[in-house]
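Could you help me review a protein record that somebody else here produced? What it holds is a sequence and that sequence's fold in token form. I have pasted the whole thing underneath without changing anything:
=====
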Amino acid sequence: MKRIVTFLLIMSGLVFSQAKAADTKVEGRIYGTWWMYMNDSTFVDGETAVDHQGWNQFSLDRSYMSLKSKLTDYTSVTITSDLRSVSGYNGYTMILKYGYANIKMPFMTPLSLSLGLQPTRFLDYNDSQIWGRRYLEKSVGDLTEIWGTSDLGATIDYAFGPAGTQGSVGLSIWNGTKYSDLTEKNKNKDFNFYAAYKPLINNPNFDRTILVGSVYMGTQNLVIDTSMDAGDYKRQIISVAGKVNYGSYIDLGGEYWANTLGQGSGNDDLKKTALSFHTAIYAKPFVGEKSPLRTLNLLFRYDMFDPNTDSDTLKDNQNLLILGLECAPIKGINASLNYRSYGFENSDKDAQNYIYLNTEFKF
């Protein structure tokens, strides 16, 4: 708690001290969740038997606070904290998710350079403009830990359209870590080329349609001694995602991930794949302007994850189904009541079924 209070005081002090010197604002998001386990199952621990059906729990999945300051017409900084639960600590702790500077090139303003702990651009596009419901669940590449949402590095980005509204293309150089574990274990750097484009932004029926692609090439974050070759421990990620909308009626989206991890000299590479489809159907065009159902949406998502594509004997494939309703009763608040089922290729494992209530509060 002392850490949280201290951080808030520092953030507030920065805001007030910089108010006259720079264009500064504070933003925040809180993800609150309630879930109930639906399977008919009993957990036995020694002589104690516990009925898990109906087991339910409230949780705070995430709480983000961001300080964004425009220092000059060409330079801005962003600092984002992440309040979260971590293993080994029975409560919530605060860690830094983003801390970076962005510099627009005066001679070519669509071109910019970002330095520091910053978003991985493919996942940033996916979470904000394709899946777009991070409060409900992570996108499949993040959920299966193929790639994280933040890393230390540098990014050169060229934006399309006014303020980058039509997309961008760029190159990032990364340490190859993640914001929850920034320890770099070897000297190698990773490279990531990405591109995003909205081809129909001027067509009101398809203005949110977007395509994003990314190629990541590097080395796993492992200790590599003098007897080892970094090339034998490669880390490659190819990912594509996209969304098609038709007016305010429906969105159809999806993402595909292919991850290759070197297993050392003489060993076959480990290959993983993840695939996700999702759709949203909006009630707004079908009801009157004063209808309480105006912000109601029907959501569907289905994920498939194969942690080892070269093995058919392990029976380790997994899937996730999410089906539910979403609403935005007032500005800054989103909520979803949904059913989700975690399924397994292994027939000895039963699907795990839940009811979730996810909420997002933004300010």
